[in-house]
Write a structure and sequence with these properties.
The protein is α/β, with parallel strands linked by helices. The chain has one domain (5-228, 235-239): P-loop containing nucleotide triphosphate hydrolases (Rossmann fold, 3-Layer(aba) Sandwich). It contains seven helices and nine strands; from the N terminus they run E-E-E-H-E-H-E-H-H-H-E-H-E-E-E-H. The strands form two sheets. It has a six-stranded mixed sheet with strand order 5-6-7-3-8-9, sandwiched between helices. Strands 2-1-4 form a three-stranded antiparallel sheet, covered by helices on one side. Helix 5 packs parallel to helix 6 (170-182).
C-alpha cells in the first residue's frame, strides 16, 4: 500500500535578511513517521520547525501539509516548544493548562467534551492525580508531561517537539521517550540529545543549512555499560546511506 505523505517540503530556502539559514531543503514525511531533526546550533532546525508551523512564512509556496498550505493545516499540528514561560504566581492548575490545548480562534469557553479529552490525556500521561496542583509545585519532568498533554489535547495528526527532554533529569527523560514511543501519530522531534536516536525514530534529518536524510534507521551500535561512544555514532551515520 502506498504511504501517505503528510508533509512535503520542496526546494525550500530561507534567509533572515542577507543571512541564508536554509538552502534547497527537500523532505517528505509520511504518516506514522517518527523523525529526529539533529544538527549544530544555528544550523536551521528551529527555523524549519517555525516554517512548518506557519510561525514564519517561507519565501514561496513550497511547504504542503496534508496537501494544503501551512495556515490551513496547522490546526492538525500539536506543538511542544522548547521554552514556555509561566507566571508561577498565577492561580492556574494543571487541568487549566491542559485545557488550553482545546482553544481555537474565536473560542472562549470550554465544553464538557473539552474537559473529558483533557482529563483523558492526563490519565495517559500518568498525571491525572496532579490535575488540581499548581504548575509551580511540579517537578521539571511533571511540567513537561503537562505540556505534552496540552499539545495532545488538541488531538493533532502531527506532533512537533522542540527539545522535549531539555533540563529534565535522566529518569524523567526516559519516561518522556517511553511516552512518545507509544503515541500513534506522526512525530517530529528536535534534539541535541543523541540518545533520541535509540528511542524509536525511523528517520534522522541532519540539518546544517542543507538537509541530509537518513531513512530506515536501525541503531545497532553496541552500548558500553548502558551508554555509547558518540564517535562510534558519527562513524555509523557517515557509513549509512543518506539523501539530500
Amino acid at each position: 500500500m502506498k504511504k501517505q505523505i503528510e508533509i512535503s517540503v520542496k526546494n525550500l530556502s530561507f534567509s533572515y535578511g542577507d543571512h541564508e539559514v536554509l538552502k534547497n531543503i527537500n523532505l517528505e514525511i509520511y504518516k506514522g513517521d517518527y523523525i529526529a531533526f539533529i544538527g549544530p546550533n544555528g544550523g536551521g532546525k528551529t527555523t524549519l520547525i517555525k516554517l512548518l508551523l506557519g510561525l514564519i512564512e517561507p519565501n514561496c509556496e513550497n511547504i504542503k501539509i496534508f496537501a494544503n498550505d501551512v495556515k490551513t493545516a496547522r490546526q492538525k499540528i500539536g506543538y511542544l516548544p522548547q521554552y514556555i514561560n509561566f507566571n508561577m504566581d498565577m492561580p492556574i492548575n494543571v487541568l487549566d493548562i491542559v485545557l488550553q490545548g482545546r482553544l481555537t480562534k474565536g473560542k472562549f469557553f470550554y465544553t464538557k467534551k473539552d474537559k473529558e479529552i483533557a482529563l483523558s490525556q492526563l490519565k495517559k500521561m500518568n498525571i491525572y492525580h496532579l490535575k488540581n496542583r499548581k504548575i509551580k509545585d511540579l517537578s521539571g519532568g511533571q511540567r513537561q508531561r503537562v505540556l505534552l498533554a496540552r499539545a495532545l489535547t488538541k488531538q493533532p495528526k502531527i506532533l512537533i517537539l522542540d527539545e522535549p527532554t531539555a533540563s529534565i533529569d535522566p529518569e524523567g527523560q526516559k519516561d518522556i521517550y517511553a511516552i512518545l514511543k507509544k503515541l500513534d501519530l506522526t512525530k517530529i522531534i528536535v534534539s541535541h540529545d543523541i540518545q533520541v536516536l535509540f528511542e524509536g525514530v525511523n528517520k534522522v534529518a541532519y540539518i546544517n543549512k542543507t538537509l541530509f536524510l537518513h531513512e530506515d534507521i536501525n541503531m545497532t551500535i553496541k552500548r558500553h555499560d548502558g551508554h555509547f561512544c558518540e564517535m562510534e555514532l558519527i562513524d555509523f551515520i557517515k557509513g549509512d546511506s543518506c539523501t539530500n
